[in-house]
Write a structure and sequence with these properties.
Helix content is 47%, strand content 5%. By secondary structure, it is mainly α. Strands 4-6-7-3-5 form a 5-stranded antiparallel β-sheet. Strands 1-2 form a two-stranded antiparallel ribbon. The radius of gyration is 23 Å and the shape is globular.
Length: 422
Protein backbone atom coordinates (compact mmCIF):
# COMPACT_ATOMS: atom_id res chain seq x y z
CA UNK A 1 0.00 0.00 0.00
CA UNK A 2 2.46 2.54 -1.23
CA UNK A 3 2.29 6.29 -1.41
CA UNK A 4 1.09 7.49 -4.79
CA UNK A 5 4.30 8.25 -6.62
CA UNK A 6 5.19 8.14 -10.28
CA UNK A 7 8.54 6.94 -11.44
CA UNK A 8 10.46 4.57 -13.67
CA UNK A 9 9.18 1.04 -14.24
CA UNK A 10 11.28 -2.08 -14.30
CA UNK A 11 10.20 -5.67 -14.01
CA UNK A 12 11.41 -6.93 -10.62
CA UNK A 13 12.72 -10.45 -10.17
CA UNK A 14 13.81 -12.65 -7.30
CA UNK A 15 17.17 -10.92 -7.01
CA UNK A 16 15.99 -7.38 -7.76
CA UNK A 17 17.21 -4.76 -5.31
CA UNK A 18 14.68 -3.06 -3.08
CA UNK A 19 15.09 0.27 -4.82
CA UNK A 20 14.16 -1.27 -8.16
CA UNK A 21 11.11 -2.94 -6.68
CA UNK A 22 10.05 0.34 -5.13
CA UNK A 23 10.36 2.03 -8.52
CA UNK A 24 8.43 -0.77 -10.18
CA UNK A 25 5.49 -0.63 -7.81
CA UNK A 26 5.41 3.14 -7.45
CA UNK A 27 4.30 3.45 -11.07
CA UNK A 28 1.16 1.44 -10.30
CA UNK A 29 -0.68 4.47 -9.09
CA UNK A 30 -0.69 6.15 -12.48
CA UNK A 31 -1.13 3.19 -14.77
CA UNK A 32 -4.89 3.40 -14.68
CA UNK A 33 -5.79 6.71 -13.15
CA UNK A 34 -2.97 9.18 -13.72
CA UNK A 35 -3.15 10.28 -10.10
CA UNK A 36 -2.64 13.89 -9.24
CA UNK A 37 0.59 14.74 -7.50
CA UNK A 38 -1.17 15.72 -4.29
CA UNK A 39 -2.96 18.64 -2.65
CA UNK A 40 -0.31 20.97 -4.07
CA UNK A 41 1.35 19.99 -7.34
CA UNK A 42 5.10 19.84 -7.64
CA UNK A 43 4.93 22.54 -10.30
CA UNK A 44 3.22 25.10 -8.04
CA UNK A 45 4.79 24.12 -4.72
CA UNK A 46 7.44 26.50 -3.41
CA UNK A 47 9.90 24.35 -1.51
CA UNK A 48 10.62 25.83 1.94
CA UNK A 49 14.11 27.03 2.73
CA UNK A 50 15.93 24.10 4.38
CA UNK A 51 17.39 26.58 6.87
CA UNK A 52 13.97 26.63 8.52
CA UNK A 53 13.90 22.88 9.12
CA UNK A 54 15.50 22.85 12.63
CA UNK A 55 12.97 25.37 13.95
CA UNK A 56 10.11 23.45 12.34
CA UNK A 57 11.37 20.18 13.85
CA UNK A 58 11.57 21.72 17.30
CA UNK A 59 7.99 22.92 16.94
CA UNK A 60 6.89 19.46 15.83
CA UNK A 61 8.58 17.89 18.87
CA UNK A 62 6.59 20.16 21.15
CA UNK A 63 3.39 19.28 19.32
CA UNK A 64 4.12 15.54 19.62
CA UNK A 65 4.63 15.80 23.37
CA UNK A 66 1.45 17.86 23.68
CA UNK A 67 -0.43 15.09 21.85
CA UNK A 68 0.75 12.42 24.27
CA UNK A 69 3.97 11.01 22.85
CA UNK A 70 6.54 10.65 25.62
CA UNK A 71 9.36 13.23 25.63
CA UNK A 72 11.90 10.40 25.75
CA UNK A 73 10.52 8.88 22.54
CA UNK A 74 10.34 12.24 20.80
CA UNK A 75 13.89 13.21 21.68
CA UNK A 76 15.46 9.83 20.92
CA UNK A 77 13.54 9.23 17.69
CA UNK A 78 14.12 12.67 16.19
CA UNK A 79 17.67 13.20 17.41
CA UNK A 80 19.90 13.67 14.39
CA UNK A 81 17.01 13.85 11.93
CA UNK A 82 17.89 16.34 9.22
CA UNK A 83 16.34 17.75 6.09
CA UNK A 84 16.99 15.27 3.28
CA UNK A 85 17.07 16.93 -0.12
CA UNK A 86 17.31 13.55 -1.86
CA UNK A 87 13.79 12.71 -0.64
CA UNK A 88 12.42 15.92 -2.16
CA UNK A 89 14.28 15.21 -5.39
CA UNK A 90 12.63 11.79 -5.60
CA UNK A 91 9.25 13.32 -4.85
CA UNK A 92 9.70 15.92 -7.58
CA UNK A 93 11.38 13.76 -10.22
CA UNK A 94 8.27 11.91 -11.29
CA UNK A 95 7.75 10.59 -14.80
CA UNK A 96 4.69 8.91 -16.24
CA UNK A 97 5.10 5.57 -17.99
CA UNK A 98 1.80 3.98 -18.98
CA UNK A 99 1.50 0.20 -18.93
CA UNK A 100 -1.61 -1.60 -20.10
CA UNK A 101 -3.07 -4.41 -18.03
CA UNK A 102 -1.66 -7.28 -20.07
CA UNK A 103 1.84 -5.79 -20.02
CA UNK A 104 1.76 -5.06 -16.33
CA UNK A 105 0.11 -8.24 -15.09
CA UNK A 106 2.43 -10.28 -17.29
CA UNK A 107 5.43 -8.68 -15.62
CA UNK A 108 4.16 -8.79 -12.08
CA UNK A 109 2.43 -12.17 -11.99
CA UNK A 110 5.58 -13.92 -13.14
CA UNK A 111 6.23 -17.63 -12.71
CA UNK A 112 8.78 -17.14 -9.94
CA UNK A 113 6.30 -15.04 -7.96
CA UNK A 114 3.59 -17.67 -8.39
CA UNK A 115 6.00 -20.36 -7.24
CA UNK A 116 7.20 -18.38 -4.23
CA UNK A 117 3.64 -17.43 -3.36
CA UNK A 118 2.49 -21.04 -3.35
CA UNK A 119 5.52 -22.07 -1.30
CA UNK A 120 4.83 -19.36 1.27
CA UNK A 121 1.18 -20.33 1.57
CA UNK A 122 2.35 -23.85 2.38
CA UNK A 123 5.15 -22.68 4.70
CA UNK A 124 2.83 -20.50 6.76
CA UNK A 125 -0.19 -22.78 6.42
CA UNK A 126 -1.04 -22.86 10.11
CA UNK A 127 -0.75 -19.08 10.40
CA UNK A 128 -2.95 -18.55 7.36
CA UNK A 129 -5.56 -20.96 8.75
CA UNK A 130 -5.74 -18.98 12.00
CA UNK A 131 -5.91 -15.72 10.07
CA UNK A 132 -8.76 -16.86 7.84
CA UNK A 133 -10.71 -18.13 10.83
CA UNK A 134 -10.24 -14.86 12.71
CA UNK A 135 -10.42 -12.27 9.92
CA UNK A 136 -12.14 -14.10 7.06
CA UNK A 137 -9.46 -13.28 4.47
CA UNK A 138 -8.02 -16.25 2.52
CA UNK A 139 -4.31 -16.91 2.11
CA UNK A 140 -4.10 -16.22 -1.66
CA UNK A 141 -5.47 -12.69 -1.22
CA UNK A 142 -2.96 -11.78 1.48
CA UNK A 143 -0.10 -13.50 -0.32
CA UNK A 144 -0.71 -11.63 -3.56
CA UNK A 145 -0.41 -8.26 -1.82
CA UNK A 146 2.65 -9.54 0.04
CA UNK A 147 4.30 -10.59 -3.20
CA UNK A 148 3.51 -7.45 -5.17
CA UNK A 149 4.47 -5.02 -2.43
CA UNK A 150 7.82 -6.44 -1.26
CA UNK A 151 8.43 -9.81 -2.92
CA UNK A 152 7.26 -11.59 0.24
CA UNK A 153 9.24 -9.39 2.60
CA UNK A 154 12.53 -9.55 0.71
CA UNK A 155 12.55 -5.86 -0.26
CA UNK A 156 11.00 -3.66 2.41
CA UNK A 157 13.34 -0.72 1.80
CA UNK A 158 16.31 0.51 3.79
CA UNK A 159 15.99 4.29 4.00
CA UNK A 160 15.66 6.22 7.29
CA UNK A 161 11.89 6.44 7.60
CA UNK A 162 11.77 9.14 10.26
CA UNK A 163 14.04 11.41 8.26
CA UNK A 164 11.97 10.88 5.12
CA UNK A 165 8.70 11.57 6.93
CA UNK A 166 10.07 14.67 8.63
CA UNK A 167 11.38 16.03 5.34
CA UNK A 168 8.06 15.45 3.58
CA UNK A 169 6.14 16.90 6.54
CA UNK A 170 8.26 20.06 6.35
CA UNK A 171 7.80 20.28 2.58
CA UNK A 172 5.06 22.36 0.98
CA UNK A 173 3.31 19.73 -1.09
CA UNK A 174 1.73 17.24 1.31
CA UNK A 175 2.66 18.73 4.65
CA UNK A 176 -0.56 17.89 6.48
CA UNK A 177 -0.55 14.28 5.31
CA UNK A 178 3.05 13.66 6.33
CA UNK A 179 2.73 15.48 9.65
CA UNK A 180 0.10 12.87 10.45
CA UNK A 181 2.34 10.04 9.26
CA UNK A 182 5.32 11.29 11.27
CA UNK A 183 3.18 11.54 14.40
CA UNK A 184 1.96 7.97 13.87
CA UNK A 185 5.54 6.76 13.42
CA UNK A 186 6.44 8.27 16.80
CA UNK A 187 3.43 6.54 18.37
CA UNK A 188 4.61 3.19 16.95
CA UNK A 189 7.97 3.74 18.64
CA UNK A 190 6.34 4.96 21.85
CA UNK A 191 4.20 1.80 21.96
CA UNK A 192 7.37 -0.27 21.82
CA UNK A 193 6.78 -1.92 18.45
CA UNK A 194 9.91 -0.64 16.69
CA UNK A 195 13.01 1.28 17.68
CA UNK A 196 14.00 4.36 15.67
CA UNK A 197 16.84 2.36 14.14
CA UNK A 198 14.50 -0.42 13.02
CA UNK A 199 12.18 2.02 11.31
CA UNK A 200 13.55 1.80 7.77
CA UNK A 201 11.79 1.57 4.43
CA UNK A 202 11.26 3.34 1.08
CA UNK A 203 11.74 7.08 0.70
CA UNK A 204 8.01 7.89 1.01
CA UNK A 205 7.66 6.44 4.51
CA UNK A 206 5.91 3.08 4.07
CA UNK A 207 6.77 0.31 6.51
CA UNK A 208 6.75 -3.46 6.61
CA UNK A 209 6.21 -6.46 4.40
CA UNK A 210 2.99 -5.11 2.89
CA UNK A 211 4.07 -1.47 2.99
CA UNK A 212 1.70 0.14 5.46
CA UNK A 213 1.74 3.86 6.00
CA UNK A 214 2.46 4.58 9.69
CA UNK A 215 -1.15 5.57 10.43
CA UNK A 216 -2.38 2.19 9.15
CA UNK A 217 0.45 0.37 10.93
CA UNK A 218 -0.45 1.99 14.24
CA UNK A 219 -4.20 1.43 13.98
CA UNK A 220 -4.42 -1.99 12.32
CA UNK A 221 -1.13 -3.68 13.19
CA UNK A 222 -1.55 -7.00 15.02
CA UNK A 223 0.90 -8.81 17.31
CA UNK A 224 0.32 -12.29 15.91
CA UNK A 225 3.48 -14.04 17.06
CA UNK A 226 2.74 -13.17 20.69
CA UNK A 227 6.02 -11.42 21.49
CA UNK A 228 4.32 -8.27 22.74
CA UNK A 229 5.32 -6.12 19.75
CA UNK A 230 3.76 -5.35 16.38
CA UNK A 231 6.74 -5.75 14.06
CA UNK A 232 5.60 -5.67 10.46
CA UNK A 233 9.18 -5.59 9.17
CA UNK A 234 10.68 -8.68 10.80
CA UNK A 235 7.68 -10.76 11.91
CA UNK A 236 5.90 -12.48 9.04
CA UNK A 237 2.94 -13.60 11.22
CA UNK A 238 2.46 -10.00 12.37
CA UNK A 239 2.63 -8.73 8.78
CA UNK A 240 0.17 -11.30 7.41
CA UNK A 241 -2.37 -10.90 10.21
CA UNK A 242 -2.15 -7.11 10.07
CA UNK A 243 -2.81 -7.20 6.34
CA UNK A 244 -5.88 -9.34 6.93
CA UNK A 245 -7.05 -7.06 9.73
CA UNK A 246 -6.78 -4.02 7.48
CA UNK A 247 -8.54 -5.76 4.58
CA UNK A 248 -11.35 -6.71 6.93
CA UNK A 249 -11.59 -3.07 8.00
CA UNK A 250 -11.82 -2.05 4.34
CA UNK A 251 -14.87 -4.27 3.96
CA UNK A 252 -13.71 -7.77 3.06
CA UNK A 253 -16.63 -10.21 3.06
CA UNK A 254 -15.64 -13.67 4.27
CA UNK A 255 -16.44 -16.60 2.02
CA UNK A 256 -17.17 -14.51 -1.08
CA UNK A 257 -15.22 -14.30 -4.35
CA UNK A 258 -13.30 -11.21 -5.42
CA UNK A 259 -12.59 -11.55 -9.15
CA UNK A 260 -13.41 -14.00 -11.92
CA UNK A 261 -12.22 -14.01 -15.49
CA UNK A 262 -15.11 -14.27 -17.95
CA UNK A 263 -15.77 -14.45 -21.67
CA UNK A 264 -17.91 -11.74 -23.28
CA UNK A 265 -20.03 -12.00 -26.44
CA UNK A 266 -19.42 -10.08 -29.66
CA UNK A 267 -22.22 -7.68 -28.82
CA UNK A 268 -23.88 -6.55 -25.61
CA UNK A 269 -24.68 -3.27 -23.78
CA UNK A 270 -21.03 -2.28 -23.39
CA UNK A 271 -21.93 0.90 -21.52
CA UNK A 272 -22.78 -1.28 -18.51
CA UNK A 273 -19.15 -2.39 -18.25
CA UNK A 274 -18.07 -0.13 -15.42
CA UNK A 275 -16.66 -0.69 -11.96
CA UNK A 276 -19.44 1.40 -10.42
CA UNK A 277 -22.24 -0.57 -12.12
CA UNK A 278 -23.01 -3.84 -10.35
CA UNK A 279 -25.60 -6.23 -11.73
CA UNK A 280 -26.70 -9.74 -10.67
CA UNK A 281 -24.71 -12.55 -12.25
CA UNK A 282 -27.97 -13.82 -13.73
CA UNK A 283 -28.26 -10.61 -15.79
CA UNK A 284 -24.69 -10.85 -17.07
CA UNK A 285 -25.47 -14.43 -18.05
CA UNK A 286 -28.52 -13.30 -20.03
CA UNK A 287 -26.30 -10.82 -21.88
CA UNK A 288 -24.14 -13.74 -23.01
CA UNK A 289 -21.29 -13.45 -20.51
CA UNK A 290 -19.90 -16.86 -19.56
CA UNK A 291 -17.13 -18.21 -17.42
CA UNK A 292 -13.69 -18.18 -19.00
CA UNK A 293 -14.02 -21.82 -20.08
CA UNK A 294 -17.36 -21.13 -21.78
CA UNK A 295 -19.53 -22.69 -19.09
CA UNK A 296 -22.55 -20.68 -17.92
CA UNK A 297 -22.46 -18.32 -14.99
CA UNK A 298 -24.63 -19.20 -11.99
CA UNK A 299 -28.14 -17.81 -12.35
CA UNK A 300 -28.04 -16.02 -9.01
CA UNK A 301 -28.25 -12.50 -7.63
CA UNK A 302 -24.64 -12.11 -6.52
CA UNK A 303 -23.75 -8.57 -7.63
CA UNK A 304 -20.79 -8.04 -9.91
CA UNK A 305 -19.32 -5.36 -12.14
CA UNK A 306 -18.03 -6.18 -15.61
CA UNK A 307 -14.51 -4.82 -16.05
CA UNK A 308 -12.90 -4.52 -19.48
CA UNK A 309 -9.46 -3.04 -18.74
CA UNK A 310 -8.53 -3.03 -22.44
CA UNK A 311 -11.97 -2.73 -23.99
CA UNK A 312 -14.42 -5.29 -25.33
CA UNK A 313 -11.75 -7.25 -27.23
CA UNK A 314 -9.31 -7.61 -24.33
CA UNK A 315 -9.44 -9.53 -21.05
CA UNK A 316 -12.76 -9.46 -19.20
CA UNK A 317 -13.58 -9.91 -15.53
CA UNK A 318 -16.50 -9.93 -13.16
CA UNK A 319 -15.53 -7.95 -10.08
CA UNK A 320 -17.48 -8.90 -6.97
CA UNK A 321 -18.04 -6.69 -3.90
CA UNK A 322 -14.73 -7.84 -2.39
CA UNK A 323 -12.93 -6.26 -5.34
CA UNK A 324 -13.89 -2.87 -3.93
CA UNK A 325 -11.41 -3.60 -1.14
CA UNK A 326 -8.62 -3.76 -3.72
CA UNK A 327 -9.55 -0.30 -4.98
CA UNK A 328 -9.50 0.96 -1.39
CA UNK A 329 -5.99 -0.48 -1.00
CA UNK A 330 -4.71 1.16 -4.19
CA UNK A 331 -6.80 3.34 -6.48
CA UNK A 332 -5.04 2.17 -9.63
CA UNK A 333 -7.36 -0.14 -11.54
CA UNK A 334 -4.43 -1.92 -13.17
CA UNK A 335 -2.71 -2.55 -9.83
CA UNK A 336 -5.96 -3.72 -8.25
CA UNK A 337 -6.78 -6.04 -11.14
CA UNK A 338 -3.25 -7.41 -11.11
CA UNK A 339 -3.34 -8.06 -7.36
CA UNK A 340 -6.76 -9.69 -7.58
CA UNK A 341 -5.79 -11.76 -10.62
CA UNK A 342 -2.58 -12.85 -8.86
CA UNK A 343 -4.71 -14.01 -5.92
CA UNK A 344 -6.98 -16.03 -8.22
CA UNK A 345 -3.93 -17.74 -9.72
CA UNK A 346 -2.67 -18.63 -6.25
CA UNK A 347 -6.15 -19.99 -5.52
CA UNK A 348 -5.95 -22.29 -8.56
CA UNK A 349 -7.28 -20.30 -11.53
CA UNK A 350 -5.60 -20.81 -14.93
CA UNK A 351 -3.65 -18.09 -16.76
CA UNK A 352 -5.86 -15.39 -18.21
CA UNK A 353 -6.90 -15.08 -21.82
CA UNK A 354 -5.74 -12.11 -23.87
CA UNK A 355 -9.32 -11.60 -25.02
CA UNK A 356 -11.50 -12.10 -28.07
CA UNK A 357 -9.30 -10.25 -30.56
CA UNK A 358 -5.99 -8.37 -30.71
CA UNK A 359 -5.99 -5.00 -28.97
CA UNK A 360 -3.71 -2.23 -30.17
CA UNK A 361 -3.09 0.03 -27.15
CA UNK A 362 -2.52 3.71 -27.76
CA UNK A 363 0.93 5.16 -27.46
CA UNK A 364 1.35 7.92 -24.91
CA UNK A 365 1.37 10.52 -27.69
CA UNK A 366 -1.84 9.14 -29.19
CA UNK A 367 -3.48 9.26 -25.77
CA UNK A 368 -2.42 12.89 -25.40
CA UNK A 369 -3.95 13.64 -28.81
CA UNK A 370 -7.16 11.95 -27.67
CA UNK A 371 -7.24 13.89 -24.41
CA UNK A 372 -6.65 17.18 -26.23
CA UNK A 373 -9.51 16.48 -28.64
CA UNK A 374 -11.79 15.56 -25.74
CA UNK A 375 -10.84 18.77 -23.94
CA UNK A 376 -11.75 20.73 -27.06
CA UNK A 377 -15.18 19.11 -26.91
CA UNK A 378 -15.64 20.27 -23.33
CA UNK A 379 -14.78 17.09 -21.44
CA UNK A 380 -12.84 17.08 -18.19
CA UNK A 381 -10.07 14.54 -18.69
CA UNK A 382 -7.86 15.77 -15.88
CA UNK A 383 -4.31 16.25 -17.10
CA UNK A 384 -3.25 15.78 -20.71
CA UNK A 385 -0.64 13.28 -19.58
CA UNK A 386 -0.94 10.32 -21.92
CA UNK A 387 -2.51 8.10 -19.24
CA UNK A 388 -5.96 6.61 -19.80
CA UNK A 389 -7.35 7.50 -16.40
CA UNK A 390 -10.84 7.36 -14.99
CA UNK A 391 -11.87 10.78 -16.33
CA UNK A 392 -10.55 9.95 -19.78
CA UNK A 393 -12.47 6.67 -19.76
CA UNK A 394 -15.68 8.43 -18.77
CA UNK A 395 -15.26 10.95 -21.58
CA UNK A 396 -14.45 8.20 -24.08
CA UNK A 397 -17.57 6.28 -23.16
CA UNK A 398 -19.78 9.35 -23.56
CA UNK A 399 -18.31 10.13 -26.98
CA UNK A 400 -18.63 6.50 -28.06
CA UNK A 401 -22.33 6.60 -27.21
CA UNK A 402 -22.83 9.84 -29.15
CA UNK A 403 -20.96 8.51 -32.18
CA UNK A 404 -22.77 5.17 -32.16
CA UNK A 405 -19.61 3.21 -31.36
CA UNK A 406 -19.37 0.31 -28.88
CA UNK A 407 -19.25 2.17 -25.57
CA UNK A 408 -16.65 0.09 -23.74
CA UNK A 409 -14.77 3.16 -22.37
CA UNK A 410 -11.54 2.12 -24.09
CA UNK A 411 -10.28 4.24 -27.00
CA UNK A 412 -9.38 2.78 -30.36
CA UNK A 413 -8.08 4.30 -33.57
CA UNK A 414 -11.55 4.45 -35.10
CA UNK A 415 -12.62 6.76 -32.27
CA UNK A 416 -9.48 8.88 -32.60
CA UNK A 417 -10.02 9.25 -36.34
CA UNK A 418 -13.65 10.28 -35.80
CA UNK A 419 -12.60 12.95 -33.30
CA UNK A 420 -9.89 14.22 -35.63
CA UNK A 421 -12.45 14.62 -38.41
CA UNK A 422 -14.49 16.76 -36.03
Amino acid sequence: MRAFTITDFRSPGPSTAGAKLARAIAVLSVIAFGLAAGPVSAATCRTPNPAGFPAWLQSFKQKAVAEGVSPQTVNSALAGVRYDRSVINKDRAQHVFAQDFLQFSGRMVASYRLQHGAANIKKYGNTFSRIQQQFGVPAPVITAFWGLETDFGANTGNGPTLQSLATLAFDCRRSEEFNEQLMAALRIIDRGDLTPGQMRGPWAGELGQTQFLPTVYYEYGVDYDGDGHVNLIRSTPDALASTANYLKHLGWRAGEPWLEEVRVPASMPWELADLTIKKPRALWSRFGVTRADGSPLPEDNLPAALILPMGRNGPAFLAYPNFDVYIEWNQSLVYSLTAAYFATRLAGAPPLSKGRAPVEPFSMEETKQLQTLLLQRGYDVGKVDGVIGEKTREAVRDVQVKLGLPADSYPDHRLLAALQRG
